[in-house]
Amino acid sequence: MRQRYAMVAIGVLFFAAIFYGLLYAYTMNAESERKAITAEGIKALAYSDFYRAEALLKQADADQDPYAAEFLSYFYVTSGQYDNAALYAEKAVKFKRHTAYEILGDLALIGFGRAKGVDAAISFFEQGAIRRANDEAALIKQGLHVKNNWYNGDPLNMVPRDINLQATEYFSQMVKRALPLLTNEKDYIDFILKTKQKGAKDLEMQMGDMLFVGNDKISSNAQAALEYWKAALDKGITDAYVRLGGVYWHGYAAKRNPQDSIDMYSAAVDKKNPIALYSLGLISLRSGAKGGDEMGIQLFNTAAANGYGPASTALGVFALTETDTPDALTKAGNWIRIAAVEQNDLSGRIIYDLMLMSGIGAGKEFSRGFDDLLEISKVYGPAKSIIDLLQQRIEPADILKQVLVVSNNVLRGNIAYREGDPVAQQEIKDPTTGEVMDRPFSFYESVSTLDKAFKDRYGARNFTSVTDISKLAVNNEPILSPELVKVIVQYSPSTGVAPFVADTKMPRPEPPLSPSDYNMDDFVPPVSLLEVQPLRNKETGQLNKIY
């Protein structure tokens, strides 16, 4: 009897072994097939075969592949399918996939996903940063491979502080990538201040700019701004050179020092910074030095080639007012059109609208020019003054001629309608009373106080005192409106500081890493999922989509 039971037991164990062996073989084969499908989907995504990539990754996700949802969410968020991105990012988080946290944070900033807003975004970024740092620390301690291994010492000596430092690094990177996603000034200010408080690094430029301009959360303080910009300069940030160039040129929060300013702008020019190119171009034009004109025009040309609208406008103004070659009008028209249409320069738009209405330098399209000018008039006074002149039956051609003459004189430094930085002006509104006041802690001194020797050294036209516009004559005729001299917005060298203007872009989170055991190369996203694109179409207001 016992022998029979033993034989039965052996038989059961034998068949169980066969069953579990087959089950294991089936499972391993199924896992191998799932990994292969995921790998093929990732490769298709890298090759821009979006239809095939989507189908394969969805198939793998249905089979519970731990990486498929992460790559699907990355594909959807970078191609403009934000509801799908949120759906798959939430699934990927359950598999503890790192990129999914950044995607959910990005979506929160642009108003998608279950949790929305600045606080939700920051929370996702924090979770993702600490999750990634902890997971990588565990692998490092086990002696396993980690791409971009961030710990150089003996893994046995790793302490929580090391992990927290790396988490802060990841958090800072996500914050920096998210800055172009902010849709309004309130969210921008909250995001910067809150992430800075939580330890985000490399926000010196943003903090400096906010302190210089001032807002509802922090008062203007030019000296504090200067310290942040100096810290950014120590890190080699190009825009910091421009900020300090403007500081030393105008004497904001530091003694006016034109030579230091020129040195700072020159350092930024070496990096093809368009604001520095334009600022140094103005200084050269007005210097009175031999070759100054040629150098100024050359700098403007480089700035325009780098997409800077004010430089294109300036080149168009000079072509229209100082050149009498047969092709001068065509060249001028091209420069102004580029500034207005392609580079969206406010000054260029106003001049181009007048050209369209008058038919000078452009095909006559009165309605097109008038409609755009009407739009500009909602935000900029000089455009409204031109509308008023048109309603008084003054011909667009007559207005254009005066605008071109006074614009040339502003660019040349013969006329000045205001002192200081053209964007970050010396006078601001008191945040409490609304009254106009000097910018706090700037210690600015008017150019009228500078002695002649100082002015002559760097070019007197670089320090022109404010002109009495009411007495100004243009071609021996009274100026049609004092506001015409303000058509040129960028009338002097600049710090580059500007109030927040929403120019929201499509999310561009860090791409996910290829699974290490999926028999494939590193994932390199296609250019279309990496290049910067506006979040919405400017004409229709609809969300842009790549796929």
CATH architecture descriptor of the largest domain: Alpha Horseshoe
Q: What is the CA–CA distance across the termini?
A: 72 Å
Strand content: under 5%
Rg over CA atoms, rounded to whole Å, is 31 Å
CATH domain fold name of the largest domain: Serine Threonine Protein Phosphatase 5, Tetratricopeptide repeat
Strand order of the main beta sheet, please? 1-2
The total count of strands amounts to: 4
Q: Under the CATH scheme, which class of the largest domain?
A: Mainly Alpha
Give the count of structural domains.
2
Number of helices: 21
Helix content: 55-70%
Overview of the structural elements:
This protein folds into two domains: 2-183 and 505-529, Serine Threonine Protein Phosphatase 5, Tetratricopeptide repeat; 218-486, Serine Threonine Protein Phosphatase 5, Tetratricopeptide repeat. It is built from 21 helices and four strands. Helix 12 crosses helix 13. Strand 3 and strand 4 form a beta hairpin. The radius of gyration is 31 Å and the shape is elongated. The model is unreliable at 22-28 (pLDDT under 50). The chain has 547 residues and is mainly alpha-helical. The chain has a two-stranded antiparallel sheet with strand order 1-2. A two-stranded antiparallel ribbon has the order 3-4. The longest helix is centred in the N-terminal third of the chain and has 45 residues, at 2-46.
Please write out the topology.
Elements: H1 2-46, H2 50-62, H3 68-79, H4 82-94, H5 98-110, H6 118-141, H7 160-178, H8 185-197, H9 204-213, H10 222-234, H11 238-250, H12 258-269, H13 274-286, H14 292-305, H15 309-322, H16 328-342, H17 346-358, H18 366-376, H19 381-391, H20 396-412, E1 427-429, E2 436-438, H21 452-458, E3 473-474, E4 477-478
Antiparallel strand pairs: 1-2, 3-4
Helix pairs in contact: 1-2, 2-3, 3-4, 3-5, 4-5, 5-6, 6-7, 9-10, 10-11, 11-12, 12-13, 13-14, 14-15, 15-16, 15-17, 15-20, 16-17, 17-18, 17-20, 18-19
